[in-house]
Every structure is written in structure tokens, then in C-alpha cells.
Amino acid sequence: MAKRRMAAAPGGQTRPAGAGGQARPAYGGRPMDGDRRRTGTNPAAQSGPVRPRPVQAQSGSVRPRSAQAQSGSARPRPVPAQGYDPQEARAQKKKVRHFYDYSLLFSIIFLTAFGLVMIYSASSYSAQLDPRYGGNGAYFMQRQGAIAAVGFVVLFIVSKMDYHFFAKFSVLGYVMSYVLMIAVSLVGTEANGKKRWLGIGPVSFQPTEFVKIALILMLAAVITSVGHRINRPKTALSVAALALPLAGLIAMNNLSSGIIVCGIVFVMLFVACKVKWPFFAMGAAAGGILAGAGPIGNALLQIGLLKPYQFNRIEAWLNPESDPTGNGFQVLQGLYAIGSGGLVGQGLGESIQKLGFLPESQNDMIFAIICEELGLFGAVSIILIFLFMIYRFMVIANNAPDLFGAMLVVGVMGHIAIQVILNIAVVTNTIPNTGITLPFISYGGTSILFLLVEMGMVLSVSNQIKLEK
Questions:
Q1: Res 192: pLDDT
Q2: Smallest Cα–Cα separation from 163: which of 441, 447, 421, 465?
Q3: Alpha-carbon distance 59 to 80, whole Å?
Q4: Which pLDDT score, from 0 to 100, does residue 65 have?
């Protein structure tokens, strides 16, 4: 018998060579780790007695691990790229963060701060001469600033809450609105022939500002509950009927706020309903009423639905020169202020009309002082900031998590937009004087406080919008 050839192994060990000159393992026929297919050499095999064999050697030099590998059907598994972690990638894909509209927040802060500056500029002269304020020219600015500071604290608290929480109090707020409006009609404080204030101890406030928020919450909750049935005329009229009695109570002593309440209902239903032509028809009817305001106002005065001071405002609007020292005095002085401002204005603090010529210069007519001191440039800039704020409302409403959040933002948007339009229209004598303040800028503690609460609710809706990375 021929003598078997022995292959020298590392370390002096020998093992028999198989067919084709390949050495077979000397340990019971079980392949060593170095004989297994790998993408590189086996460090353990390098230190052991078995010679390491490279991958992809010549044909027949590597023993396959399985029958599947022998048949050639096995494919090498893809190796992940260096630094790639699949679990971390999936975690980043699912990572979600909440949105918070800082653009809207900065707009609110800017308008409030600008309002404080303009309140001081418009009221410092009259406050120094009034003994009730102790010669403090900054009285109105300080009072407005203190209430605004409290309002911003409330804004941040409300903005971090879940806005669905407020829906629980929509019915209670709606009922409280009727209670407050009846109370102000019976025991309210009268000023300039109008009962708008309700005193509770040393604190007095305008209930109409609370009514606006309560009505927005109530309408948003009702529209959400009826769902697609809001497109039926009967359902839409039923929703509108919830606000009409309340608007009538408000209009008895505060016509401007009654108009705003009706406008809020109009805007919310316009957005919620698919059928738009009835709203365009109502808009055309409102334009017709405005065009025939004189005869219509006279008829309403005769039947007692319009008070004399309200009809006098209509007359002053139609022909302010007919009574320049009486009913048309405020309108004319406001127009003088706008006309004297020119393109860039007289300069901040350099208004002439605020020196006792323009009544309520820090309240309803503050936009005229802005036009006089900052000119057309300043007036247009303020209007653009309000338009940017309306745009942010639209973005939040379009991305709101649900219908209730969207309708809540739409209601606040309608309130701000209508009040800005009406105030500027009054100052420019486009519509009759109705005593509407300019949001965030005009003096009014109750107004700024409840406006900031509304902004907190809008930011609360924005905070619930989820952004996926």
C-alpha cells in the first residue's frame, strides 16, 4: 500500500492531504473555524493551528457551510454602511415635535408694545392737565402696561393647555353671557349716555369682551357637534339663532359690539358651510343698508330701535361739515390728523390734534394719531402687521388637529379682522362712528386682557399641531 502523503501544518503538526491537494482537518473531520466562509480572515484561526484561508479563493478551495451553499443558491447578506444604525434611523423617523407659532407671538408682543408707545404719545398731554390723574402723563400707559403684563401671563398659561378643555365651559360661558348683559342693562355704569361697564367692587369691566370669547367657544362646539349637517340651511339658521338674541342685548347699549358679534357668527358659518351664495347675498344686503343709512336710520329712530345719539353719528358721517363744532367735530378732527401726517408723518410725539382737539385720541381715534405722527408709511406698516397676523391665523386653522380647533381659530380671526376693519373705516369716515377700538393698540384694560386670552387659545391650537421629522 502506498504511503500516504502528510501535509505539514503550522506549529509542526501534520494532517493528511485530501483529493486535489487540499488538506483535511485532523480533528474528527469537523472543519475548523478558519475553514468557514467569511468576509475576511478569522482572528481566532490565525492564532490556532489551522492555516487561515482567504475568501473568494480559487475555485474549489473553500468548503461550503451547507448544501444550499453547495448548490450555489446562497447569496451574501448586505453589510450595513459604516456608522448606520437601523434602530436609530427608525427612532428618528418616528420622532414627533409640537409646533408653536412664534411668528404670531412676536406679532402680538410688537403690537402691544407699539400700542403702549402710542397710548403715551396720545394721552400724555390730557393726563397731565386732568387732576384725576395727579398730573401723571404716563397714567394711561402705566395702567395699560400693568393689565397687559397680567394678560401675557394668562396667555402663556392658556397656550400650554389643551384647548379641548375650554369646550367643557362653552355652555356655562354662553349662559353667563346672558346674565352679564342683562345685569349691565339694569345696573351698569352709564358713561356718555351708554351703559357698557359693570362694576364688581373696585373693578369694572366691559362684559361684551367676555361675551365675544364665550360666543366663539359656543359656536365652535356646536358646529363641531353637528358636523356635516351644518350644510343644511335649517341647521345653519339654528346655529345663527343662538347668537341673535345675545347680539340684540349687546346692541341696545353698544351697537359696535353688536355688529362685531354678528360678524363673528357670519365668518364662522361662512367657513363651515359649503354653500356660499347666501353669505354673498347677505354681504350685498349689508352694502345696500350702508348706502341707504340715512333714510333707514331715520325710520329706525322713529320706531325707537335707534337712539338719538346713534342717529346723530349717521348724520355726522353723511355730512360732517354741517355741524363742525358738534356731531361732526370728532370726525373732522380725525380727518385733519390723517391729512396733516403726509407720507412720513410729523414725528413720534409731535401730533397737534392730541392737544385737546381730537376727543378719545388714545381710544377709538388712535389710528388718526398714528397717521399724523408716522404718516402713511406708519399706517400701512400697522395694517400689514395685522394682515400678517390674519395670515398666521389661517395657517393654524388649516393645520389644526380637529374641527373644533379650526373653528376656534376662525372665530378669533373673524373677531380681530372685523374690529380692525371697522376701526380704520370709522377713523377715515368710511362708515358711521360706532366707537370701536383698534385691537392691541387702543387704550382699554378689558379689551387687551380678553384679547390676550383669545391669543392664548389660538396658540394652544398651534401647540397641538404635530410636526414629524
A1: 62
A2: 465
A3: 28
A4: 47
Q: Report the run of H or E that residue 15 belongs to, with start and end.
A: strand 14-16
State pTM to two decimals. 0.76
- Look up residue 429 and give its three cell numbers: 369716515
Q: Centre a 10 Å sphere on the Cβ of residue 167 and count the other Cβ atoms it contains.
A: 18
pLDDT digits (tens, 9 = 90+) for 227-251: 889 989 899 999 998 888 888 888 8
Place of cell 374641527: 403
Grid cell of 30 as nine digits: 469537523
Evaluated on CA atoms 268, 270, 271, 275, the torsion sign reads positive
Contact present, 52 and 34 (Cβ < 8 Å): yes
107, 431 contact by CB (below 8 A): no
**Grid cell 362653552 — which residue?**
170
Cell of 165: 378643555
d(CA 167, CA 158) in angstroms, rounded, equals: 13
Radius of gyration of the chain (CA): 39
Reference 389, options 451, 467, 321, 296; nearest CA is 451
Contacts of 43 (CB under 8 A, 6+ apart): none
- Intervals of the chain under pLDDT 50: 1-50, 54-74
Q: How much is the pLDDT for 48?
A: 47
Q: Is the Cβ–Cβ distance between 370 and 344 less than 8 Å?
A: no
Residue 371 cell numbers, joined: 397717521
CB 261 within 8 A of CB 215: yes
Look-up of cell digits 384725576: 132
Instruction: Specify the pLDDT at position 308.
Output: 78
Helix (H) or strand (E) holding 469: none
| Cα–Cα distance for residue pair 342/71, rounded to 1 Å | 92
Question: What span, in angstroms and rounded, lies between the C-alpha atoms of 99 and 392?
Answer: 13
Report pLDDT for 42. Answer: 46
The three three-digit cell numbers of residue 68, written as one number: 444550499
Per-residue pLDDT tens for 290-330? 888 778 888 888 887 777 777 877 887 888 887 777 778 88
* Number of other residues whose CB lies within 10 A of the CB of residue 21: 8
Tell me if residue 80 falls in helix, strand or coil. Answer: coil
Angle, in degrees to the nearest 10, between helices 102-129 and 445-463? 170
